[in-house]
Design goal:
seven-stranded mixed sheet; Spore Coat Polysaccharide Biosynthesis Protein SpsA, Chain A; two-stranded parallel ribbon; binds magnesium ion; binds guanosine-5'-diphosphate; alpha/beta
């Protein structure tokens, strides 16, 4: 009997993306309909959008049946949206995610999927910071500087040796997601560190491969506030995996207060 073709679930977290997401959804759906032999599903995960993002996604869904939306009223953040989206892992063999602005094009994302099969890794991370990466439009100087400071801190705390943990394009095998999902708790932009560290701790192989990137205007990142909460989140995550873990409970009220003050999504309680 011939082996069944692998199926792919692509998640796109979206917050107030009415301006950027429409063409991206159509490009992805058309590309994968034409070029991907297995079943393809694209789920946009929205939360608390104050614009017409949901209508834009539904319009695209009427044109392409592969597209659907999950909408949450609460401000669960990009990480929270992905934690919810990853609960759909049983729907497919491979689960990936990209940003709503099309910074990673469909062919570049498809390349990550191919690399997963070619390298035998459990997770493939698109990277803008290793040799071979093609930056059609690089991030701004301030963002690149912040990115390298963050990388140095993350490397000092977790020793993962992944140069670009923050690129919005990743693809992971279903079994790996199912195994580590209970450890996902970071709801802000530092979510990726939580995901990657959990995968590595569980013994899964994470492979960083060069990708193509076209930075887009209209970023949702307020650099100062976002960097501060990301820093808080990675320190918090380090404590979760240390003998000092009980201290977190003691500081929980203060912790939640700071996240709220920063208008950032409060970390969840992990299930493990
Ligand atoms: N669901 C959800 N998605 C978010 C939130 N904040 C950002 N995103 C999405 O995360 C992705 C990356 O955001 P973007 O502004 O492009 O970040 P940048 O490219 O790093 O500046 C986009 O798809 C955003 O719509 C949020 O609070 N909730
Ligand atoms: Mg972007």
């Amino acid at each position: 009997m011939p082996e069944a073709l692998p199926s792919l679930l692509l998640l796109i977290p979206a917050y107030n993306e009415e301006q950027r997401i429409g063409p991206v959804l159509r490009d992805y759906a058309a590309y994968f309909q034409k070029n991907f032999p297995g079943k393809f599903q694209l789920v946009v995960i929205l939360n608390g959008c104050r614009d017409r993002t949901l209508d834009v996604v539904r319009e695209a869904g009427r044109e392409f049946s592969a597209i659907s939306a999950l909408d949450f009223a609460e401000p669960i953040g990009k990480g929270g949206a992905l934690i919810e989206g990853l609960k759909l892992a049983p729907l497919a063999d491979l689960i990936g995610y990209v940003d709503a602005d099309g910074a990673t094009g469909p062919a570049s994302f498809h390349d990550l999927v191919k690399q997963l099969a070619a390298t035998g890794a459990d997770c493939v991370v698109g990277s803008r910071w290793i040799e071979g990466a093609v930056l059609h439009q690089a991030q701004t100087g301030r963002r690149r500087f912040a990115s390298r400071c963050f990388h140095a801190i993350v490397q000092g705390l977790f020793w993962m040796s992944i140069r670009d943990t923050q690129c919005g394009a990743k693809v992971i095998k279903r079994e790996a997601i199912e195994k580590i999902h209970g450890q996902l708790r970071i709801a802000d932009m530092a979510f990726d560190i939580n995901l990657l560290y959990s995968l590595l701790r569980a013994g899964f192989r994470v492979r960083e491969v060069p990708t193509e990137w076209t930075d887009k205007t209209g970023s949702k990142v307020a650099l100062g506030r976002t960097s501060f909460t990301m820093l808080l989140s990675v320190i918090r995550l380090r404590l979760v995996y240390s003998p000092l873990r009980p201290v977190l409970k003691f500081f929980a009220p203060l912790d939640s207060w700071i996240y709220r003050k920063m208008r950032a999504p409060v970390p969840r309680r992990g299930r493990e």
